[in-house]
Design brief:
Number of helices: 14
Strand content: 5-15%
Distance between the termini: 104 Å
Low-confidence stretches: 1-19, 47-66
Mean pLDDT: 88
Oligomer: single chain
Number of strands: 11
Radius of gyration: 27 Å
Shape: globular
């Protein structure tokens, strides 16, 4: 008599009644194996999970599923260590934090993963509101992972913590967060409010803007774009911008530029029909120039595939420090804007492949390294490293208010309400933050050397060009 062959050899999988698996046991095992296999395919992206399997809002964050959990943070994250260097040796005391109160708009307190705010004064427009909202979204993105801390935030344009006022060994500079800084100040740079929307001028949250600009880039091939340098903005906020308008195309001069003044009051009345960011990727070259300080326009300009003509800045934000001249943008001399812009356009039109590559690499840096997932990672690492320096236990002041999304959305109106709803993080991030590289001054020095070398090369090219023009060559 023949013996039926065993399907499974493992004793733990056999039926309790005999030495063979029952039909039910076999089907359960096959079904379990199928689910495991399907889960693996969904995880690695071979199969898209049904929408009802995802947490609410997960469809908005699918791109995050493709990031390895051990991914290294982008280059600009290294500057977190440099921004916190003034406090590395002595740490940060409660007195030092309170020392920043005289200019701060509000204090942020995070205790047990909950976000509280003690407000001191209103900011320009709704900068303070959307900065608070952004920090609350970080707490929703990484629930339970934010460290306890207290920090002061100033929503003004220019940095105020002057290095020269805190140069001695006994100096205790106040740690003050803001949107930009410069080489003469110690203010700690943080992502600006517009990443969650800028209702006053109808600029959508960054996630949506990136999608729109990506589509706008496809409309006009690079070599079919207008071969001039384009700028549109408010020229009245700083003399440097008024100086830029002298370079405009007229009947008597041609600097290869097309420059336009932006009247935001008029745009508001006409429904912002002429200010869609995705409609402005139609020129080969786009100009970035600071306003009263660093300008929010920077990331929108650099997201187009157009080569960014970057007028030498005084200020920096958190991400520009990871980008290099001749790789991600073309540097423009701020003291001779017109001739510098003319040379840049001439060079680009004579070296179209190289100019196109610079524009596309700069745009790629923004689209890949400034995704909202990585903006949150920058915020997380900055706050985490900052919290390690605190020499006191954070506590909730009597006048502080806990930030809650439903209350903030309920109190908002119009575009502000819509942008809050659009930028609300509806589910937690599934992965750990990217890996922050350790502090290594050598790497930053090498980066600075590359940057200075590239700037010098362009300066020499430009000088030779105009010398030859004067000689009639």
């Amino acid at each position: 008599m023949k013996t039926r062959p065993q399907i499974f050899s493992s004793r733990s999988w056999r039926s309790s009644d005999n030495n063979h698996p029952t039909f039910r046991t076999t089907m359960v095992l096959i079904f379990s194996f199928f689910l495991l296999l399907l889960g693996l395919f969904v995880r690695i992206g071979w199969v898209k999970s049904p929408i009802y399997w995802r947490g609410k809002g997960m469809a908005e964050h699918r791109s995050n599923l493709y990031r390895p959990s051990n991914a290294t943070c982008p280059p600009h994250f290294r500057w977190i260590h440099e921004d916190l260097r003034p406090w590395r040796n002595k740490g940060i005391t409660k007195k030092m934090v309170e020392g920043a109160r005289k200019t701060a708009n509000f204090k942020v307190i995070i205790v047990d993963g909950r976000v509280y705010v003690e407000k001191y004064k209103d900011s320009i427009q709704t900068r303070d509101l959307f900065t608070m909202w952004g920090i609350l979204q970080l707490a929703r993105w990484y629930p339970g992972k934010l460290p306890d801390l207290e920090l002061m935030f100033d929503c003004g344009d220019r940095p105020v913590v002057r290095s020269k006022d805190f140069s001695g060994p006994l100096a205790d500079p106040p740690p003050l967060f803001r949107y930009c800084s410069d080489d003469s100040n110690l203010d700690i740079v943080f992502p600006d409010w517009s990443f969650w929307g800028w209702g006053e001028i109808n600029i959508k949250p960054w996630r949506k803007v990136l999608e729109d600009i990506k589509e706008g880039n496809k409309r006009t091939k690079w070599k079919e774009r207008v071969p001039f340098a384009y700028w549109k903005g408010n020229p009245h906020v700083d003399p440097s911008r008024r100086d830029l308008l002298k370079c405009n195309l007229t009947q008597h001069q041609n600097w290869d530029t097309l420059l336009y003044s932006q009247d935001w009051d008029k745009e508001s009345k006409e429904g912002y029909k002429q200010s869609n960011l995705e409609d402005q990727c139609t020129h080969r070259y786009k100009i970035y120039i600071e306003g009263w300080a660093w300008s929010v326009s920077e990331k929108y300009i650099m997201s187009c595939d157009s080569m960014t003509l970057y007028v030498k800045p005084r200020f920096f934000d958190f991400f520009i420090r990871g980008m290099l001249p001749l790789q991600h943008f073309w540097p423009i001399n701020d003291r001779s804007k017109c001739s510098s812009l003319k040379f840049a356009v001439e060079w680009g039109n004579n070296h179209t492949s190289q100019a196109q590559a610079i524009g596309e690499d700069g745009s790629k840096y923004l689209h890949e390294n400034l995704k909202m997932e990585l903006v949150y990672d920058y915020m997380f690492h900055l706050l985490n490293e900052y919290s390690k320096l605190l020499k006191f236990r954070p506590s909730i002041p009597a006048g502080a208010v806990e930030l809650r999304p439903e209350k903030m959305i309920g109190a908002a109106k119009g575009l502000h309400k819509k942008f809050m709803e659009d930028s609300l993080e509806k589910s937690r991030n599934e992965f750990e933050p990217c890996n922050l590289a350790p502090n290594d001054p050598t790497v930053l020095r090498e980066f600075q050397y590359k940057k200075l070398n590239a700037l010098k090369r362009v300066e020499n090219w430009e000088k030779d060009y105009w010398e030859n023009e004067r000689k009639g060559n």
